[in-house]
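User: Before I run my own analysis I want an independent prediction to cross-check against. Here's the chain; please return only the structure tokens and, at the end, one sentence I can use as a sanity check.
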Amino acid sequence: MRLPPPVCDNSFVPTVTFQGARSVLRKATPYCLVLLILVVVAACKQSEATEPQVTPSQQALTRTAVPSPTPVSPSPSQQPTVHLPQDEAPHSSATEWWYYTGHLKAQDGRRFGFELTFFQVIRPGIPRALMAHFAVTDQQTGKFHYEERAGLALDQQPPRGFRLSIESWSVSGAEGSDRLAAANSQYAIDLSLKATKPPVLHNGTGLVAFTADTTSYYYSRSRMEVTGTISVGGNTVAVEGLAWMDHQWGDFGPDQREGAGWDWFGLQMADGSDLMLSLLRGQDGEVDFRYGSFVDKGGNVRHLTAEDIEATPTRRWTSPRSGATYPVVWQVKIKPLGLELQVDPVMDDQEFDASRIAQVIYWEGEVAVNGTSDGRPASGEGYLEMTGYVPR
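Assistant: Structure tokens:
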């Protein structure tokens, strides 16, 4: 579960929390900063060129009206459940994201984890905007490389599915067949994804109520086969693997609670089952809301309640940059399923510093899973996201 970045109009939503990507954010206004950066970049390019080349983003900044992605689905408050494939497309909600994490194996045996996330932000009187996060976990070098970008949402939506892009970064898809492309200073991915199970509507309908006045529409494609390429230092190799996709949207309410945050697990087991857990922490740092979904090999979904879930941190790591202390090793028990798992990071330092644009720092990283299922050995891989740990 991920929640949104803060916004420019503080009277509309004073401060809200952010997914990527799928942290509780400070009272800064990164969305205003996003627009300011776009304006400054456009102005600099104009001043440096003798014959200015006007880009689509620059054109959009000078228009009185920015075209909205089409089609736009009804506001979530107008529908009781998630409806697919219609709800794959962007909505008119305040905040929305398409969140991909996955595991890649190259033909030469090298292994990589990746995260690619697009966030859409809509506020009254302000052009529709995008932010994106891209990260690669390189298991060979023990390094974590990441980058963030921002831009206006100018893509015209296809008749089916969705498309979002910022410069050369893009995500697109329809009915479980998706395409991802992104690059940072060291790595580039070009991937095709194909879902092998039906979409998971969390909480049964895809509508999750976190508080009396905060709800979210949330579905996942918990197991997607991946083929494509990764480029490392300019050298391109073929890869294959597994990915997880989250799509979440809603008109999220403010959350200014000191110390609030969450821990999210997306685990893909070797036996073909998948597990999503979300733990939301309150002002005192204690978990005050938890839920999850278990998906068996055949795609059958079991909703997990707070009573079903035990998740206990057993080791912590402190970032030398932010000072945040993250619980990087966990013991997870799903009592009605007989699952007892240990979740370990493939490397401790997978902290994503998105403070330049989104003004948030969080931990999002690749993990290994080992334990037992009804007493039999169990193993897998996954991603863990942790927010709200940076000292204030």
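Sanity check: The longest strand covers residues 214-232.
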